[in-house]
Amino acid sequence: MKxxxxxxxxxxxxxxxxNGCVSLVQSIQRGHQDGNGWLDIGYSFVACPHQKVFxxxxxxxxxxxxxxxxxxxxxxxxxxxxxxxxxxxxxxVLHAILDAVEYVRERGDAGREIKGHRDGYATxxxxxxxxxxxxxxxxxxGGDGGGDPGDGEGGGEPEAPPFPGRLxxxxxxxxxxxxxxxxxxxxxxxxxxDVDGAYGAQSRDICLRFQRQQGVEADGVVGPVTWRLTWEAxxx
Length: 236
Ligand SMILES: [Zn+2]
Ligand SMILES: [Zn+2]
What we know:
By secondary structure, the protein is α/β, with parallel strands linked by helices.
């Protein structure tokens, strides 16, 4: 399965109004049919904040959303978030994506892999928040960790300690045990840096390189996403 977002503005009002989801999906379908001249919406499925899954092209049909030459390898699911408005995927969207994943595995001969559209294609899709979730192994929100939705890379991964609640950044230098904890784990991942509890230029530069490697926003600041990836991202 490859995961997508709309790439445009999604009205946050749809979170409280499933009719808004229906209208949005219909407008995307119209764009693909009337604008692109396709036979249907380009996605196999669409996942909305109410944990509902819309059937697009469905099982055993070629999607059109992954990019030329890339559609026969993966199904395509669209999460109803965008790059403006509703940007952070509500839990219902994540659950619905995973419901679609389970469906294509059970009925659609799909394998274990969950990727983002940007994997193998030059695009921002599916956006930073959704992509970071994919990279974490696409866990069920609030789950007990017993599921194994990912492609197997996630098995037995350590869990990140709780985010310290402040951003580790430079300048000015951020000092503390949380910095030391992050540096120690980065060193364990193979990065060359001093474990001195002081987040300065060296830590920032390593952080930037790590963020680029992970495909998340590269701002050189250790926030909740980068913190979690430091422990939970598969070693590359
Ligand atoms: Zn996409
Ligand atoms: Zn909905």
